[in-house]
Structure formats: structure tokens, C-alpha cells
Amino acid sequence: MSAQLSIQDLTKSYQAGIPVLKGINLEITGDGVTAIIGPSGTGKSTLLRCINRLVEPTSGRVLLINGETSFDLVKVRGRTLRRARRQVGMVFQEYNLVERLTVMENLLTGRLGYTPAWKAWLRWFEASDIDRAYDLLQKVGLSQLANQRADALSGGQRQRVGIARALMQKPDLLLADEPTSSLDPKTSVEIMELMTELTQAEGIPVVINMHDVELAKRFAHRIIGMSDGRIVFDGTSDQLTPEHLKSIYGGESWLI
Amino acid sequence: MFDAEVKHPQRWQRYTLDQRLLRFAIYLVVVAAIVQSIRNINIIPEFLIDAPEQMADLVNRMWPVDWSYYPQSVNSALIETIHIATLGTIISMLLAIPIGLMAASNFTPNRMLNFIAKLLLVSSRSVNSLVWALLFIAIFGPGALAGTLAIAFRSIGFIGKLTGEAIEEASSGSIEALKAAGASKGAILNYGYWPQIKPAFWSLVLLRWDINIRESAVIGLVGAGGIGMTLDTAMNLFQWNRVAVILIAIFAIVIVTEVIITQVRKRML
Amino acid sequence: MANLNQSTAIIRSKPFSLSKKVKLGFVVLLLYVVYATFQLDFTYSRFISGLDNASTFFDRMFPPNFERSRILIKGMVESLQIAVVASLLGILLALPIGLLGARNLMPGWATWPARSLVALCRALHPVIVAILFVKAVGFGALAGILALTVASIGFIGKLFTEAIEEISIKQVEAVRSTGASFANVILFSVLPQVFARFVGFSTYQFDSNLRNSTMVGIVGAGGIGGTLFSAFQRFDYDFVAAILITIIAVIMLGELLASFIRAVFLENIGISDLWRKQSKRTLAAGGKDIV
Known about the structure:
The complex is a heterotrimer. By secondary structure, chain A is an alpha/beta fold. Chain A has nine helices and ten strands. In chain A, the strands form two sheets. In chain A, strands 6-7-8-3-9-10 form a six-stranded mixed sheet, sandwiched between helices. Chain A has a four-stranded antiparallel sheet with strand order 2-1-4-5, covered by helices on one side. Chain B has a single domain (73-268), classed as MetI-like (MetI-like fold, Orthogonal Bundle), CATH 1.10.3720. In chain B, 81% of the residues lie in helices and 0% in strands. Chain C is mainly α. Chain C has helices at 2-9, 20-39, 44-61, 69-100, 108-123, 126-137, 141-165, 169-177, 182-213, 224-233, 237-266, 271-287. In chain C, helix 4 (69-100) runs antiparallel to helix 9 (182-213). Chain C is globular, with a radius of gyration of 27 Å. Chains in contact: A-B, A-C, B-C.
């Protein structure tokens, strides 16, 4: 039923000869939460951004398969790329809302991949889109703030809008790049709960980058550990032992 | 341990040798340019000494001010000047936006297009509005048409350059999000860039309109319509009293424009 | 069921709707354009016949004629000299006048006349000021220099006063409390704070003077403007093209020079940075991704 993401032999070098991603192979199937952990600079963010082509991979394949349709996100261009992208939702560390637009307007921008150009220019969105927006707003608990400008919101509220916006796309896959790194511990847990609840209700697989290992163990079914551009651990949170953490992060002093 | 401290003589320098050399080089060049200019410039000393007397004579001839000339010719010319300035600003707004977009390196990644757009914008700014007026008079003949186009083409560089810079400085986060959602380039422009640059854009269009009122008053001197032509006629006929009322009118319209703009700014911000 | 009550209680306003004021504004703008075009007598036929002229015009402009380069260079050099001297005089005069106009440092009897003087200098367009000076001191570069000096005082004076009024008064008080003389207070607490902006708008004014100096010649105030004007009147359009190209090139160089000076004084680059800046640029270009 749900989509499948297949990453095959993905590499990325920002400067020739210095690869950041060194041959990543990863299969995401079924609807569940997958957390990617690892030290800064190890390529977590690059990996996520290679999936929806915000960063150009150097080589490899990224296949997004949903029933009949399948895209190789590395190869597609132009309109096909946009069609592929609209099936992948993304939640950002800095929320990335359009500050001067209201919460409702921000949610509707999530449908821009599905709205024809002239309608988008005139700002005519489908009634069903608007209904879905109000529905999602209620699910993230921000119904009262529908017409507030995005820059008037707190960090936690902004991230809720970010999640709702991503879900407006009715995506086959949700990516989240350090979604809680700018939030306090309590709000972080709230956001993680919200994300996992909503995506499980709609059967959408989620891939989350995070640096908080405890949070990862608590919410993710599957944990992927990256170190130095490679995957060095792939298993459930129970299987994640301190030895594994040492090989991922190096050093012992931070381990309790 | 204390011996190591004593070894270094303590000297405080504001700039490193590197930086001082470069600053010195610039001072040198600037001084050389100034000396060269002053030495070679063609100034006839008799004129300089005569100047205060001449200026006093000029002011004398302007008094009494010929107020009756105002309703005769000055008023309609002033209104024509305002039309030239406003229409010219509006036209340049429409033309400057696409060129400004083309010049913004984050919106248009193609370096060649960036370069061409920037070249167009620099050329528009480097050619003075008087010269643009001459150009358009040669094409369309004297009158307000040439004047309006001159104002428009001169303003393209101003509006285009600053718009392009505003787009380049827009925060890329929201743009990234729209891209990730699969929005087209046009939608990204409309929903991502435009909300961010909107206040800056209107602010600089307003500023340009202010400048254009002054410029429009002057291009008539070469025949491009507006109050400049009235001024030119009066000066050629040595009718200094009329010149006086025209100058006062120009002064007044500039002040009125400034007041309008301050009011609009207050409302908008 | 509580959910249903909640959703009906929300006022559903149409998203992205422009406020009534803005819509009205656009309608007024459109009506104005139609009205003004009518008032200014822009007929379609005039425009078309103009375009006809335009093609013959451009034909005569190209190829640009650089044969009379002696006059061209002489005129250009004079314009440069006018710009340099006017900028210098303008800066020198604007410093004390601008300082006198600062309401946070100076008493009322000093600020009022200083500010009025600056406003007066800005009131009239440099061309009009140039004409008046031509009538007063005769044709030639002197009129141009005086006119652009006045313009510079107006611009630099105003911005300098604003910059001083925006400084942190605490820094001034700190230096004053050490018992420093008035001059030292200015030198060590006021000037460092405004220096950056001062360099910024002084270089901007130099560029502006360069542009204007190429044009005051049209009314007889010296420089290449006079050459340009006579070329127009003689219908020597290919020479006009040559002059325009030269003017654009010189102004572009002027802008580069101005930004270079800003970089040296504001970002404190040194000679070795010039080499490093080159390599940094190529690295950035290579590693940048097309997103």
C-alpha cells in the first residue's frame, strides 16, 4: 500500500575527490519512523537533501516507487522532478515558513505542486485544498491561529505549521531534517509525537535526521547510524548498544 | 614563564603592514588625482573674482517675481511634469522587474544571463536622464513622449538593480521549502520571493518617483516636455522675473512631493 | 463531536485576499495611466512613426565612430577632474556643516542654520544649479565644480548629520568623562562610529558626481556633456555612440573603484587578501550546487 524508497549506491562530493556520502544503500518500506543519527558533518543532511534533489547527487539512484509509478529522483528534470518532489514532504530545522504570509497561506503553499500555474498566480486554490488545510490545522492544534502571520508564532507553533504544510502535499514519504534541533526539550517531544501520530494515521513512512539519540530511540522503529559518510548501523532501537554508539560517534565521555 | 612575556616588545598597531600598504596606496592615488585635477583644470581667474558680483546682479534681475506668469504657463507645465514623472516611473517598474530577476544570481543561475542583465542595468544608470531625453527626442521628436520614455529608461537601472539585490538577499529557507514541495519557478517567485521583497520594492519605487519628479522638471531644458521647456524659453529671452517664479514653482513641487512621500511611508510602515 | 463545534466556530476568511485598500489602489493606478497617456497626447500613430525613426537612428549610431578621440578624451578627462574636485570640496565642506547640524551634539543656534543650508543645497537639481552658476561665473569647468559641490554638500551633509544623530551617546559620554578635549571627543568617540557609513556615502557621492559631471556640460558647465550635445545637434550619431560607450565604461570603472575603496577601508583588506580573494571565488564557484 504505502510507498517504497530505494537508495542505491548514492555518493556525493561537494569538492572533487572529497566524498561526503560514500556509497549509501538504503531501503525504506512500509509505514514507520526511521531515524538517522550520527555526528555533525557526517552527511545526514546531505543524504536527506539528495532524496528530494535539493542537493545534486554525484552518482547513484534514488527510486521512489508507489504502486505503478516510479521515479528515479537522480535522473528526472523539469516538470517530472516537480511531480516527484510533490510526493515527498519535508520538515525543516528552521521551519522555513514564508514569514509574511499567514498560517493558512503557508499551508496552502504546500499544494503548489498540484496547482496549475495560472490558478496559483491568481491564488485560486481548490475548495478541497482549503478544507484539508483547516482539517490539518485542527489536527496540529492551531485552529485559532489560522490568520496569524507566520512570524508572530513561537518556534513550536511554527514547526506544527511546517508539519501541516508537508502533509498538505499528501506525500508518499515524509523527510524531516533535524526538526527538533531548534526547540526546547518539552516542545521537541510534542513535535515528535505529533509527527509520528499523524504520519501513522495516514500510513506515510517518515525519515528523520536527529542528533538526540534518546529521542530517536523513543520514537523510531528503525535507527540508522551514519559515520564518515557511510551507514554503520541499521536496526531497531533495542539493538542499539553503547558499542554501536561509540562506533558512530566516537569517544566515550558523552555516554552516560 | 615571565621571561617569555618580556621577550615580545609590546606594540599596538591598528592595522597590519598588509592593510597599511593598501590604504597608503589608495591615499596616494587619491591625492595624485586631486593634485592633477586642480592643476589642470581650466579656470579663468577673472571669472572667479567676478563671480559674487555677477551672482548679485542675477538675483537683482529676478526681483520682483512675476507671479502672473504662473497661471499662464507654469501651472500646466508643472502638471505635465508630474505626469511625465509618474507615468515614467510606472513604465520603468514594469520593465525593471524582469531584468532585475534576470540579474539575481539565486533566481537565475545562468551566469551569462546575469551578466547581460547587470550590463543592461549599469548602462541604464550610467546614461543620464538628460542624455536619454536627447536620444528619445532624436527618435520621437521633442515633447512629453520623449521625456516619459527617458525617465522610464533611466529608472530601469535603479529599480532593477535594487530589486535584484533584494532578491539575492532574500532568506533562502522558505524558498527551499517551496522547491521541496514541487512548486514551479513562477510559484516560487510569487509565494516565496515576492512576500519578502514587497516592502523594500514599494519603498524604492516611491524613492525613484521622488527623484523622477526632480529629473522631469529638468529634462525640458533639452526639449523633452514639462516645466523645463518653460524655464528654457524664459532664460533664452532673459526674462529673469519669470525664471524666478518657475524656480520657485519647481522648488515648491519638490517640497510637496517630499511631504507626500513621508506621509505614504508612515502609512505603509 | 466537540471537534465539529470547534471548526464551525472559526471564521473562514479567504486566504491571500488583498485588502480592499490595495485593490482600490490598483484600480486608481490603472485609471491614472489611461488618463495621463491621454493628457500627454501619446497616440499610437506617433509611437509607430517613432519606431520607424528609431531604426534609422540606430543604423546611424553603429558602428560607433572613435575618430575624434582627442576631443573625446579631453572632454572625459575634464569631467573626471570636475568630479574629483567637486567631491573633494563637497566632502571637506560637508564635514563641518554636517557636524554642526547634529542635534544631539550641537545647540539649536548651530543646528538650525546648518540643516537649512543642507536642505537648500538639495532643493534644486544639479543641472539647474549648474545653469545658475554658468550665468554667474561663465561657461566652463568652474561652474560645473561649483554646481556639483553644492549637490555633494546637500547629500553628504544630510547623511552625515543623520549618521551622527544615530550614534550611541554612551560612547561619547565615556570619552568625555576621561576629561578629553572637545576635539578628542569627536575624534575618538564620534568619528569611529560614523566612519563606516561616511566612507559608504562619500564613495556613492563620487559615483554620482561622476555621472552628473558627464552631463552638466550640456548647459555649458564643462566636461564631455558639451561635446555630446553638439554631436547630437550635428546629427553625428555615430560619434554620440562612441561618447556614450566611453561614458558608460568610465562610470563602470568608477563604481568598481568605489567598491574597492569601500572594501579596503570598511573590511580592512590588505594586499595579500587580493590574491586570496581570487582563489576563494573559484573555489566557491566549483563547489556550488545548482539547487
